[in-house]
Amino acid sequence: MNKKKLTYKELQERLTQAEEAIEALRSGKVDLILGENCPLVIKARTLEQEAQKLNAAIEQTSDWVVITNKDGTIEYVNKAVEIISEYRREELIGKNPRIFKSGKHDREFYKNLWETICSGNVFNAILINRKKTGDLFELHYTITPLKNKDGQIHHFIATAKDITEQKLLKEQMEYSAKYDTLTGLYNRKYFTEEINHLADNAQKQGIKFAVVLVDIDKFTALNDTFGFETGDEILKRAGKRIFNSICTDCKVSRFEADKYGVLLSDTGNPEDIILVLEKIRSNFNRSFKIGTEDIFLTLCMGISIFPENGNSAEALIKNAEIALSKARSIRLNNYQFFEEEINIKTSEFVHMQRHLFHALKKNEFTMHYQPYFDCQTRELKGVEALIRWNNPKFGLVTPGMFIPFLEETGMILEVGKWIIRTVCKQIREWINKGYDKQMVPVYINLSLAQFMQKDLTDFIERTISETNIKSEYLGFEITESFFMHDIEHTQKILGNLRQKGISVNIDDFGTGYSSLSSLWKLPFNNLKIDSSFIKELTTNPDNTAIVITIISLAHNLNLKTIAEGVENEIQWQTLRILKCDMVQGYYFSRPLPADEVERFFESKIILFT
Ligand code: C2E
Ligand code: MG
Ligand code: MG
């Protein structure tokens, strides 16, 4: 081509033409400018193609793009907005972005947003919006004002990334870094960190603690017989039972497969540890109901104690493993301490059962009394009688250690009568001391064998008349398993007791399988919410929901509720809000000898706020 050299003026003219053409294209007034010169046409075509590319990119990006005019009316939304918000484009065009408003941000937030963008600045924030379906989603949002040549805002463009999934993923990652996904217990890594952390503190404060490894006997066989699904279900429930056996500050982890790790942060004393081990074992006395099957499990446990058996997680776990292997090599269903000397001592303790045969004759049983109070007014409402075995060799032994043995041997019938007699005599003594007016019902725990005895009500009646007390001063506690056992018998006994003015509480409610219809039929007075629900009341929303449900169920059945095992102020205050009627627990008073409980008769309202 014969190139003509342009004069400066011609060049200026062409450049002006080109600029005008580009502006015309940009403003959308024309699609294509056909200038007399080819480069200009090409330039115009290129611009159009670029605009199309840009359009496609905006349309197809997974990021949220909304363009509004300067009054905030939506003029454009891309596909991602439709997908994320679940609104169709037609439903959004012409509307204001407040259509996505979730109510999660206050007035101040929106004021700041508008002030920022109207003054020509870019606004950046995490914004919680609401979909058409009502679900919330979270966006990392940027709003940019679009300005013309003179700096006047004509549009706003909001671009954003949906970070809902990112956040969920982060939460999931945080969860799995700490918890076992099957059981919801701590995982091994976190458990190990906790031991090391506790070891550091314990060293400074000179305190002891214990690490227990708990292994389910013959779990592989169970898995093979019932399949993995049942196996998993058992692992979950077994973990829950172990968790329910330990104190609030102690920790349980799923250590590996069918092995759990327990950190007893509050004691390194073998006898206290044994109490917890026995509690764990007694919580496995009940079967695991899977479908129509009743599965019974036993456990082996290995224990190491800080600092004697190691001063780090690694050493303590290793030694607990050694103790566990030793336990397994001896027989199923047993536990061993790492230290042989303790094993020798504890085997004596385990053999204490022989001494139980003589406990009644030797007058070694005694009753302790734990009060419970009105949840709102803090007024004394009742007292629960709890047996203790005071043995010169073993000290004061709690019932978890010996009641199962008394039940197995049938001794519970004789001991049970002793309990009823002792409590009635105690009430008489309190009356003699002048507490008649302040007297509240004293509740006795019954064992199933006692409850099934034909002469139970006659015996109670006789004892009441012999001790010359009012029958309203006496109450009993039975668990759900009793009426599941024989509903007609339960109905008869409860009817008889009710007639005499004797109250009956359902104990440990929520741990059994009572049916609504049986609850409806039986004349109970109070329902005691099992301590396992109270323990996690304020930390586990599932438990809060369960407690709310139990309270409302009880109230609908005209029963009052008593929360067992209240250990701190927050639990108490929560129960007040949930309209629980009464509270019992270490926070208010531990079980006390008879003379010490008298102070609650003297001042019926507990003296703390
Ligand atoms: P239970 O009837 O549910 O009694 C409540 C248990 O929880 C008592 O344990 C009590 O000391 C304990 N406890 C109360 N407040 C708290 C708390 O805030 N935190 C914790 N961690 N525990 C708390 P105890 O005395 O060891 O009795 C255990 C179980 O033994 C009783 O459970 C009852 O089933 C049985 N038992 C106790 N005394 C007798 C009795 O005289 N006869 C019969 N047959 N069984 C009894
Ligand atoms: Mg009880
Ligand atoms: Mg109870």
Overview of the molecule:
The chain has 609 residues and is an alpha/beta fold. It folds into 4 domains: 8-58, no CATH class; 61-162, PAS domain (Beta-Lactamase); 169-345, Reverse transcriptase/Diguanylate cyclase domain (Alpha-Beta Plaits), CATH 3.30.70; 349-603, TIM Barrel, CATH 3.20.20. 48% of the residues lie in helices and 22% in strands. It is built from 24 helices and 22 strands. The strands form 4 sheets. Strands 13-14-16-17-18-19-20-21 form an 8-stranded mixed β-barrel, surrounded by 4 helices. Strands 2-1-5-4-3 form a 5-stranded antiparallel β-sheet. The chain has a 5-stranded mixed β-sheet with strand order 7-8-6-11-12, sandwiched between helices. Strand 14 and strand 15 form a beta hairpin. Helix 8 (219-226) crosses helix 9. It is elongated, with a radius of gyration of 37 Å. The termini are far apart. The model has no long low-confidence stretch (mean pLDDT 88). The site of one magnesium ion (MG) has 4 residues, from strand 18.
Care to count the β-strands?
22
Tell me the name of the CATH homologous superfamily of the largest domain: EAL domain
Sheet of most strands? 8 strands, mixed, barrel
Give the name of the CATH architecture of the largest domain: Alpha-Beta Barrel
User: For the record, what CATH class of the largest domain applies?
Assistant: Alpha Beta
The amount of beta strand, in percent, is: 15-25%
- Identify the strand order in the major beta sheet: 13-14-16-17-18-19-20-21
Number of domains: 4
| Global Rg | 37 Å
Portion of residues within helices: 40-55%
How many helices? 24
N/C terminus separation? 101 Å
| Averaged pLDDT | 88
Low-confidence stretches: none
